[in-house]
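Exercise 7. Given the encoded structure of a 303-residue chain, write a plausible sequence.
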């Protein structure tokens, strides 16, 4: 969340300065109208609110926060039209018991999901909390990801229109825009589509294709899967990747020679841009306007 941060707190000011104006001006002014000299001086002393990752007083508060973020994410995906019947799922690793994860129940419309609807399951495929069934493919895919990647707190997969369409090309996104650079050298393609993912071996092959550091993977003939070190980052990564797929499909369709005619960003520039727009903090920050929007419009998702 955004909060007042003093200068001596643990904030990367060098990195922040690249993206935001956060230092108080030395200019002394009194705004015409009702502002007094005293009010002007007090305003100049107010701390500047810096975007910062949230901290929690206990693990229970953290769990509640994460489940609320996930539920809000489901509402957003529904609003964007990225639900597809019973297909699609998001999971978060439990902050107290990292070998357990929360997931949406089978067959519940994304636009109706509340934080209290989420189901807690273990990596063996058994329900720990909740009284509804869970999509088997959701368990197989997400258990494999969470089991292999300790850094993954959240994973997102749906059958979104442009993601599944782009997946039929069987290739990675190209660095054709600043947004696409968020995935530069940070995603892969899983080429071995074998139908609905019901067996453990398929999940393991998918994880091997994802690799130890990539934050996203394009599942050929299937769709997108994104991950994050926060719930916010993972959901934003999915939103952004879906739109990057849309952007590239439109660009390729506009060119007689298809993808061969695209003007790519220089590799060094793409790599540097990734450092600015593709890390955990950037993903967290980019999600906040959407979170604020959806909880104001649909506050019941938090309960």
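Solution.
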């Amino acid at each position: 969340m955004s909060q007042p941060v003093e200068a001596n707190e643990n904030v990367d000011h060098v990195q922040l300065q690249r993206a935001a104006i956060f230092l108080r001006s030395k200019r002394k002014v009194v705004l015409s109208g009702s502002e007094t000299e005293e009010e002007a001086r007090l305003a100049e002393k107010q701390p500047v609110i810096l975007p910062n990752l949230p901290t929690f007083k206990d693990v229970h508060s953290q769990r509640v926060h994460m489940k609320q973020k996930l539920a809000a994410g489901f509402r957003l995906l529904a609003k964007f039209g990225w639900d597809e019947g019973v297909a699609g799922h998001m999971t978060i690793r439990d902050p107290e018991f990292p070998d357990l994860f929360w997931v949406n129940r089978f067959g519940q419309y994304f636009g109706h999901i509340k934080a209290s609807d989420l189901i807690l399951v273990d990596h063996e495929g058994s329900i720990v909390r909740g009284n509804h069934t869970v999509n088997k493919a959701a368990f197989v895919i997400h258990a494999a990801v969470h089991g292999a990647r300790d850094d993954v707190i959240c994973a997102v997969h749906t059958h979104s229109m442009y993601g599944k369409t782009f997946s039929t090309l069987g290739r990675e996104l190209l660095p054709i825009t600043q947004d696409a650079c968020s995935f530069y050298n940070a995603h892969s393609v899983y080429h071995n589509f074998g139908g609905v993912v019901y067996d453990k071996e398929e999940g393991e092959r998918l994880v091997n294709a994802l690799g130890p550091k990539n934050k996203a993977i394009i599942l050929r003939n299937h769709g997108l899967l994104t991950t994050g070190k926060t719930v916010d980052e993972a959901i934003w990564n999915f939103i952004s990747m879906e739109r990057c797929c849309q952007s590239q499909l439109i660009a390729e369709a506009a060119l007689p020679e298809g993808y061969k005619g695209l003007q790519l960003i220089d590799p060094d520039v793409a790599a540097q841009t990734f450092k600015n727009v593709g890390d955990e903090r950037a993903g967290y920050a980019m999600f906040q306007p959407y979170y604020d929007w959806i909880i104001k419009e649909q506050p019941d998702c938090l309960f």
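Remark. Strands lie at 2-4, 49-51, 89-93, 100-103, 119-122, 127-129, 154-158, 187-190, 216-219, 223-228. Students should compare their own answers with the one above.
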